[in-house]
Amino acid sequence: xxxxxxxxxxxxxxxxxxxxxxxxxxxxxxxxxxxxxxxxxxxxxxxxxxxxxxxxxxxxxxxxxxxxxxxxxxxxxxxxxxxxxxxxxxxxxxxxxxxxxxxxxxxxxxxxxxxxxxxxxxxxxxxxxxxxxxxxxxxxxxxxxxxxxxxxxxxxxxxxxxxxxxxxxxxxxxxxxxxxxxxxxxxxxxxxxxxxxxxxxxxxxxxxxxxxxxxxxxxxxxxxxxxxxxxxxxxxxxxxxxxxxxxxxxxxxxxxxxxxxxxxxxxxxxxxxxxxxxxxxxxxxxxxxxxxxxxxxxxxxxxxxxxxxxxxxxxxxxxxxxxxxxxxxxxx
Amino acid sequence: xxxxxxxxxxxxxxxxxxxxxxxxxxxxxxxxxxxxxxxxxxxxxxxxxxxxxxxxxxxxxxxxxxxxxxxxxxxxxxxxxxxxxxxxxxxxxxxxxxxxxxxxxxxxxxxxxxxxxxxxxxxxxxxxxxxxxxxxxxxxxxxxxxxxxxxxxxxxxxxxxxxxxxxxxxxxxxxxxxxxxxxxxxxxxxxxxxxxxxxxxxxxxxxxxxxxxxxxxxxxxxxxxxxxxxxxxxxxxxxxxxxxxxxxxxxxxxxxxxxxxxxxxxxxxxxxxxxxxxxxxxxxxxxxxxxxxxxxxxxxxxxxxxxxxxxxxxxxxxxxxxxxxxxxx
Lengths: 332, 329
Description:
heterodimer; A: mainly alpha; two-stranded antiparallel ribbon; 13 helices; elongated; B: mainly alpha; MetI-like fold; 2 domains; 15 helices; globular
């Protein structure tokens, strides 16, 4: 599976370069934000109405100009920040910092579960296709071609049209155990989006697994196992699968980042399934750019930092393990 | 294998894929819960009218008959009628194509014009400040969601500095060009340019970043090859080697990846159009999905799928021309 040579490669590359360290540091912060959101949040992220006389609070250290109409005249005045709301409040008076923390949960949950689903679907498909080759492979690869003919975002949109927006409340252990008073007792997992991102990205895993299986099936040890009477299923599980894991791991890392981007795009387009999502928040803030610049800006920084950190770690894995893979990026 | 045969094989594969796309979409529509009649008329409408509409749409037929009818209509370019707008879907798709095409081409131009020089600089000055700058830029570019980038550009350049409009497309490129050619009035073209710059940069940034990365790593790979040393040893000027030989060989993998990334470009266009209210196919697709207007959803996605397949065959053909070895594989 993972040999000592690979391990020492990984360690060496990590020690030599600054970038994987930076990526790991950022990712740890994001993961901690997501895990301990109920404890770290200063307000319930869903509570509205944190206003200063009807105005959203700006982030700490900033202020902005507003006006009121007195006797038909515009009377300008300055809206100051509140130390209660580190990153200000949004257009309905929700605490932006608390929503940033909870948004990290949604992004990571969808990213990890969606990637997991894609691996579970794509890897067996690719292994079988590549191992058997011939007609089986031809037929299976035509199915993969059909999947690849849809841009993943577009296919995701079509599937959301079919499934509708389904959300699954997952009880929050920290709140249930009584460590965080007044926080939401469940995290909303956007079920449809999680399934859909898996359904539109599995084909990349299938391609990578297929390539590996094709290379491995002609190895001497596989031929030896076959001549000793091992069944195809045994060979696939005991030899082909473990030896094709390296590129799958690299792709999975990059794919978590791509799925976080995909989730945020879908949420931005209005198919979120939960309002505690960075993409949704950015969309909400777009109408208030003239007055409240921070509402759209803050969650975007959250996305960029999470994705950069994962990409940095992905680059490190790729450089150390050096598999030859390709995948669809997550620019959308 | 001869080039013609290769092209024929790819085309046949393409047709198979298009049939798959069409079938998947038919299947998705068939399994979507809810009665489509409700999307066309008020749910309170009487049973007789509902039955009549059902018959008109062919929904009273068994599923395989519906499928056969659907394929038959598609073959003659009939994509049906939109539930919401009661207009032919084919018209609703075609009228939105120019806007999306303008955006996609403008974004690709932005990407190529910035990325290739940047990648060359980065690749030839490895570990110098210029290389670090370009590498950081490309990491940031592939990690930034384009809708957020678009909103930040609007915030900075449209709302704060007021140098660009926040969105919309007041004039189509072909109309502006026609005005210019017939009356020599350049104003419409400038208006168009003024409006497309932010969306094009928004959509193009990811590709700029990606191509910069590819150009850089491609140049580095090529520099290590013996032919470069040989040409240099022959005394051929370095600039000539760099651009004529190294860059040209670097273009081969770039073209492949661009073909693969076309889906990202189309997906990105959907999002970018939403950010800038750019009246293309993407904006229409989003509203069709919100309305569950299945004939329109299908029409747009089939169009995208078919274009994607055709462009990919084109990319493969260019690739085969540049690198004839693939013909033998």
